[in-house]
Amino acid sequence: MELRSAPPEFPSRFLLLRRTSSKIEVEFFLKERAEKLKSKNLFKKGDRMIIADDYSINLSTMLLKSTFSEYGELHTIVYELNQEVYVKKSPMTILEENILQLGTTYEGIIQATKYLLPGQKMLCVLFSALDRICFFNTTSILRHDNLLLAYSHIAKIAPSGKGSLLTFTNGKQLYVPVFHRILVNRRSHASYVADTFANNYRAIQNGQINPIFMENNDGNDYGDFIQ
Fold first, then answer.
1. Which Pfam families does the protein's record reference (predicted)?
2. 221: burial class by Cβ within 10 Å (0-12, 13-18, 19+)?
3. φ and ψ of 91, to 5 deg
4. Which one has a higher pLDDT value, 121 or 87?
5. How far, in Å, CA of 53 to CA of 136, rounded?
6. What does the H/E/C string look like for the chain?
7. What's the confidence (pLDDT) of residue 187?
8. Residue 96 and residue 66 in contact, taking contact as beta carbons nearer than 8 Å
9. Which residues, 6+ apart, have CB-to-CB distance to 110 below 8 Å?
10. What pLDDT digit, counting tens, does each position of 4-43 carry?
11. Gap between the Cα atoms of 167 and 169, Å rounded
12. What is the 3-state secondary structure (H, E, C) of 75-123?
């Protein structure tokens, strides 16, 4: 038995190659990941699952969740209001490609968010200010067990043991092993970022570009525009 290097997007500790006389068996150790994603009344795969090579983020997008193909490739299951889409790309790739289509970059979005939320970590990702589509993370966006949650589709966040029970706008629920107060704060930041940039766009369209300052709930002052 020997350990081999994993594909770039696949953590090496989850890939074990067992060499036999006739073949190489690949086993993926996802037990830890599965335990962290245990849920109550979670989404279930059904006849609405769609398989796609690409995906366009839209107003129905609620959640992006990593999954692995049988070959160890990092793919994504996207949960929309009324259907599920299996996308043959990683969540980060989907984000980056969709953001590029809007004329900016993922790095640029993060820099703009840092300007509004200085000193904050686990920053949310604003996709569309006009439509107020903004995602917040359950952990680091670089981790394979991270969930990208559209803040506008989270109807309720309730404490549940050492984690939280999320209720989505379509009534589905998901258990997340992250403390309630942490998710509430991250959702609040996502809402603030989306609202601020939406107001800024509207102010620019109306010719009102005089900056004012407003105080966020963490006590810091942030630049905004007069409406």
1. ComK
2. exposed
3. -55, -40
4. 87
5. 24
6. CECCCCCCCCCHHHEEEEECCCCEEEEECCHHHHHHCCCCCCCCCCCCCEEECCCCCCCCEEEEEEEECCCCCEEEEEEECCCEEEECCCHHHHHHHHHHCCCCCHHHHHHHHHHHCCCCCCCCEEEECCCCEEEEECCCCCCCCCEEEEHHHEEEEEEECCEEEEEECCCCEEEECCCHHHHHHHHHHHHHHHHHHHHHHHHHHCCCCCEEEEECCCCCEEEEECC
7. 97
8. no
9. 123, 125
10. 333 433 333 333 333 333 433 333 333 333 333 444 334 5
11. 7
12. EEEEEECCCEEEECCCHHHHHHHHHHCCCCCHHHHHHHHHHHCCCCCCC
Q: Which amino acid is at 82?
A: N
169's tokens = 């706008």
pTM: 0.72
The label of the residue with tokens 């009324």 reads 82
Q: Which residue has the tokens 């006389």?
A: 21
Strand pairing category for 15-19 and 24-28: antiparallel
Tokens of 71: 């070959």
Cα distances from 84 to residues 26, 48, 116, 227, in angstroms, run 27, 6, 33, 38
Q: How many CB atoms lie within 10 A of CB 130?
A: 11
Residue type, 32: E
Q: Please give the Cα distance from 113 to 107 (Å, whole number).
A: 10
